[in-house]
Amino acid sequence: MRNDSALASAILSLTGGPENVTAVTHCLTRLRLTVSDPDAVDGDALGDLPGVLGVIGKGGTALQVVLGPGVVEGVTAEVEKQTRATATTPPAPGKPTGPAVLRRVANVFVPLIPALIGCGVLAGLNGLLVNAGWLPGLTPALAAIASGFMALIAVFVGYQAAREFGGTPILGGAVAAVVVHPGVEKVTAFGVHLSPGQGGVLGALAAALLATRVEKWCRGRLPGALDVLVTPTVTVLVAGLATLYGLMYAAGVVATAIGTGANWLLTTTGAFAGLLLGGLFLPLVMLGLHQALIPIHTTLIEQQGYTVLLPLLAMAGAGQVGGALAVYVRLRHDTGMRTTIRSALPAGLLGVGEPLIYGVSLPLGRPFATACAGGAAGGAFVGFFAMLGTKVGATAIGPSGWALFPLLTGNRGPGVAAAIYGGGLLTGYAVGFAATYAFGFRRGTRVEAGQVKTRARETA
After folding, report:
1. What torsion do the CA atoms of 277, 282, 287, 288 make, to the nearest 10 degrees?
2. Which of 97, 144, 198, 383 has its C-alpha lying 20 to 30 A from 15's C-alpha?
3. Left if phi > 0, otherwise alpha if psi is -120 to 50, otherwise beta: which for 196?
4. pLDDT tens-place string over residues 434-452
């Protein structure tokens, strides 16, 4: 039985103790710690802990401990209990720029992923039951359960956005609720009647951000006696009117453009688009720029019921697995590297790629590039079928690799989508393996296997 408390205690003991941790957050797979004294962190011992899949950022103040989906939430909660830091503590002062802004936006959506996954799986199951004609008395209930969250996702986005950017969460949710309220159909903006849900999560995000700015402006200018009454009223009124008479329409235009653009991209240049997306996703992850895709995925799921981009991007993990297998074969005398690959491979097959990236391919150099080639090939395979009119999509974001199969669907049903996606994975495995085996090593690499391993540890 998993013991999150014991693992959290062990992690803290190797990161300089609770007093050395100044901030705690997490994403889908990683526990993110900000430490005041990086010299107090024993990164190698931390990476060797049972349950830890990898460590990123050794030697710096921003430390990421890869735990995997399902585990990271429980361990993070235990770490928060044992430290004075909270999940909402910003990791560094000052105005975020560049990828930091993307991380803040991603933090709005990451807590919603479990509900997206759960509802996505139920939606897929309900679709199978409806198509097969089974359990007709149960399918309406499953449909209501699966679609309830998506019907109100704008409210959750508004709540999380206000919380992340320093506002009152419930006010952010209240303003974002305007986006999905049935009464908006009586409002005319830019000469057209609005429709409930217009602008979707993008409109809700913009509404909550505006509400946070208005709230902060009011609180800095009103005495306490008036603040409790005036601030929430002005916040909801100003942000609500701006949402109805501007943000919903503008966000609706952007959301429609995203959906139209994604469909055009795949039907017109599917193989090429898949090649680029599958090949470039690992570098995007390295730079933190993949965070910008989360609102796009959510918008596509809200509009079309699935995101056509995630299956393409998931091919990057397939290339990584194929490349790691080639390293395992070529470095047959490097027992340390082979042990790392054996321990990280199951996670890689299930879509958790960080242990293979930071423990194998990136430190070795060339295998990282050849793994990207495998991802490009898998993406091109899936994109080619999109050009032929068969779309493959995911009803939720988060899982990839084999873990994505329960969430797959498309315009020709989940069975066809799963077959094409499986073909893409096999293509990514094969090309990643072949490219790494043939081009992933300089002459003499096998002789210097121990030295390669030493460099890998120093640069991880």
Report:
1. 80
2. 97
3. beta
4. 999 999 998 655 434 444 4
Q: pLDDT digits over 253-268, tens only?
A: 999 999 999 999 999 9
Backbone φ, ψ for residue 70 (5° rounding): 90, -35
Q: Tokens 């730079």 identify what position?
A: 287
Q: Quote the tokens at residue 390.
A: 């068969």
- Compute the distance between CA of residue 338 and CA of residue 325 in angstroms, rounded to an integer: 9
pTM beyond cutoff 0.70: yes
Residue stretches of the chain with pLDDT short of 50: 85-98, 446-460
Residue 392 vs residues 88, 381, 400, 403: alpha-carbon distances, Å? 36, 11, 13, 15
Q: Rounded to an integer, what distance in angstroms lies between the CA atom of residue 76 and that of residue 78?
A: 5
Tokens of 32: 């993110």
Q: What is the token pair recorded at 139?
A: 């399918």
In the chain, what are the helix, strand and coil shares in percent, each to the nearest 5?
70, 5, 25
Local structure of residue 307 (DSSP, 8 states): B
Q: How does 337-352 read in b/e, with b if 16+ C-beta sit within 10 Å?
A: bbebbeebbebbbbbb
Question: Which residue, among 96, 74, 211, has the nearest Cα to 155 in the 3D structure?
Answer: 211
β-strand pairing of 54-56 with 62-66: antiparallel
Length of the chain, in residues? 460
pLDDT of residue 444: 55
Q: How far apart are CA 229 and CA 442, in angstroms?
A: 70
Report yes or no: 387 and 275 within 8 Å, Cβ to Cβ: no
Domain annotation for the chain: domains and CATH numbers: 4-89 (3.30.1360.60), 111-265 (no CATH), 305-459 (no CATH)
Placement of tokens 């990086």 in the chain: 38
Whole-number pLDDT of residue 381: 98
Cβ atoms < 10 Å from Cβ of 289: 15
Catalytic annotation, residues: 27
Sort residue 93 into left (φ over 0), alpha (ψ -120 to 50) or beta. Answer: beta
How is residue 213 written in tokens?
A: 């700015």
Q: Which two tokens stand for residue 121?
A: 């799986």
Query: What is the rounded CA–CA span in Å between residue 396 and residue 118?
Result: 8
Which two three-digit tokens encode residue 260? 């139209």
Determine phi and psi for 100, rounding to 5 degrees.
Answer: -60, -40
Contact 414, 124 (CB under 8 A): yes
Of 321, 396, 382, give the one whose Cα is nearest residue 353: 321
pLDDT tens digits for 164-200? 999 999 999 999 999 999 999 999 999 999 999 999 9
Q: Which helix (H) or strand (E) holds 333?
A: none
In 3-state terms, what secondary structure has residue 323?
A: helix
* Helical H segments across 134-247, by residue range: 139-151, 153-164, 169-180, 200-219, 224-242
Could you tell me which of 70, 27, 73, 88 has the C-alpha nearest to residue 294? 27
